[in-house]
Amino acid sequence: MTFAYHPDDAGLSPQLMVACRHAPELLADIHSGLEARQTEIQIMTRLRKSWAHEVVRAAMVLVKSSRRAMEPGGKFARLRPRCAFFWTSPEALEQATPLAAAVHKARRMATIRPDAPLVVDACCGIGGDSLALGRHWPLFSLDISPVRSLMADWNLQSLGLQHLAMVADVLRMPLNIPPGSLGHIDPSRRSAGRRTRDELFPDISRVLDWASGFALSAVKLSPAADFNALPRAPLEILAVGSHVVEATLWLAKEQDSIALAARTATIISGDGTWELSAAPEPPAPAAPIDEFLFELSGAVTRAALAPNLSAALNIWPASVDGGYATGPSAISHPAIRSFRVLRVVRFDPGRLRKEIASIAPQNPSPGPMMLEIKTRGGLKIDTDKLQKQLAPLCRESLAILIFASASGVVAAITQRIRDDHFRGDAAGGSGVC
Fewer C-beta neighbours within 10 Å, C or N terminus of the chain? Predict the structure, then answer.
C-alpha cells in the first residue's frame, strides 16, 4: 500500500485566502456574529447578500478556525493580543504543534546551537513550530500545500519574524544552506484523511536522510510510533499538561552535543517544565495495591521510564504495564495523578454495581455525582456501557480504574485527589509574544 499525502484544506485556495485577507470587515462581521451566538446559516445568509458565496464560506472556515486556535486553552492562546487573527484551517490546526511545545523545542535547540546561521522548518504547516524557531534564528519555512504555506507566511508576518515561507517539496528541492544550520521536520501522518501511526510523508528513511544535512535537527513523530524502528538517538516524549503531543527524535552531526539520555519524558504545565532523562527500562513486576494509586503521565510510560520515576518517588508498580503505581500516601508531582483507593475487586460488572451501591457518601452534596472510568492495557471493555450502568448508583464522585494487576484484571474504586499540576492548558509555558 502506497502512502499518499493529500492535505485537507477545507476547500480553501490561495485566491480565496487573499480575498479574505483583503476583507477584514467580513472577518470581523463573522466573528461578531459568532460572539452574539448567531448560527452559521444566519450569518452566511446575511453576508451572501453583499459578498460572493465562496468568499463567505471560506471566511467562515477561517474565522472559526482562528477562534479555536486562540480561545482560552487553545494551542495558540498566548499569541493574543499581539496576533489579532491566526490563519489556519481545521485539519491544519489539529496537526499543528501547540505553541508551548514549539517554544520548548526551540529553546532546547538554542541551548545546543545558539549561533546557528539559519533554521529550516520543513513540512511547516501553518507555522506552529516556525513561530518559536523564528525567535532565535533567521527562518526558512517550507510546505507542500500552497494554502498552508501562505498561512504560515501571514502568521509569521504578524509577529514580525525574519523569515521566508514558500511552497516546496522538501524531497525534491535542493537546499543550499550554510554550514551549521538547523533543521526541523514534521512529516505528515495522515493518509486519505485518516491519522496513521508509522506511515509518514515523507517516509522515515527520507526524513532521516534530509535531517542528516544539518548540524542539529529535530524530527517530530507520533508518540505512538514504533520507537524500536528508529535509529539510536535521543528520543523525547513531550506532554503539554496531561496530553502527550509528540515524540521528538534529536539528531546531530556531533551526537554528544545533545545533553539527553536515550529517552526523555518532558511535561509542560502551568507550573513550568519538568523532565526525566534516562535509559529506558522494562516494567517491574506489579505489587499489591496500597492505599493510593497513581496514574503516571503518558510521556513517562511512552518513554519507558516508569520504573525510573517510581524508584525516585519510592512507589511501586500496580499494573503489569507500569502505567499505574501504588503507595501509602498521596503525591503531588507533575508526572503523577493520585487516587485514594476505597475498594479493589476482581473486575466484574455485577460485582462493581453492588460495591458502588454500598458506598455511603462521606461529603453529601446536591446534584449528580461524577463517575470516571479509566482502563489500561488494551482491555476490551465498553466503558460507555459501563458508565451508563454504574453512574445512577453513585452517591459520591468516584473514579474506577480497571487494569491488569499481579492478581488478574481488577477494578479499583477510588476518589481522585485534585492537583493543579495538570491544569496547564495547551498554551501553557512561556509564549513567544
Answer: N
On whether both 117 and 218 belong to a single domain, the answer is yes
Q: Which residues contact 314 (CB under 8 A, 6 or more apart)?
A: 327
Range of the domain at 254: 94-278
Q: How far apart are CA 327 and CA 417, in angstroms?
A: 14
- In order along its 433 residues, the chain shows pLDDT tens digits of 344 567 889 999 999 999 999 999 999 999 999 999 999 999 999 999 999 999 999 999 999 999 999 999 999 999 977 788 999 999 999 999 999 999 999 999 999 999 999 999 999 999 999 999 999 999 999 999 999 999 999 999 999 998 889 888 887 766 788 999 999 999 986 544 455 455 666 788 889 999 999 999 999 999 999 999 999 999 999 999 999 999 999 999 887 778 888 999 999 988 799 999 999 999 899 999 999 999 999 999 999 999 999 999 999 999 999 999 999 999 999 999 999 999 999 999 999 999 999 987 776 655 567 899 999 988 999 999 999 999 999 888 999 999 999 999 999 999 999 875 554 444 444 445 4
The helix/strand/coil state of 66 is helix
The string of DSSP letters for 231-268 reads -SS-EEEEEETTEEEEEEEEEESSGGGS---SEEEEEE
- Kindly state whether residues 127 and 264 are assigned to the same domain: yes
Instruction: Count, in order, helices (H) and strands (E) of the chain.
Output: 13, 18
User: Parallel, antiparallel, or unpaired: how do β-strands 398-405 and 371-375 relate?
Assistant: parallel
Question: Quick one: angle between helices 40-47 and 53-70, nearest 10?
Answer: 140
Contact 288, 299 (CB under 8 A): no
pTM of the model: 0.89
User: Do the beta carbons of residue 122 and residue 183 sit within 8 Å?
Assistant: yes
**Assigned C-alpha cell, 234:** 535521543
Q: What is the CATH number of the domain that holds 269?
A: 3.40.50.150
Distance of CA 120 to the CA centre of its chain: 22
> Where a domain ends, among 232, 247, 278?
278
Distance, C-alpha 347 to centroid of its chain: 32
Q: Let me know whether 151 and 236 are in one domain.
A: yes
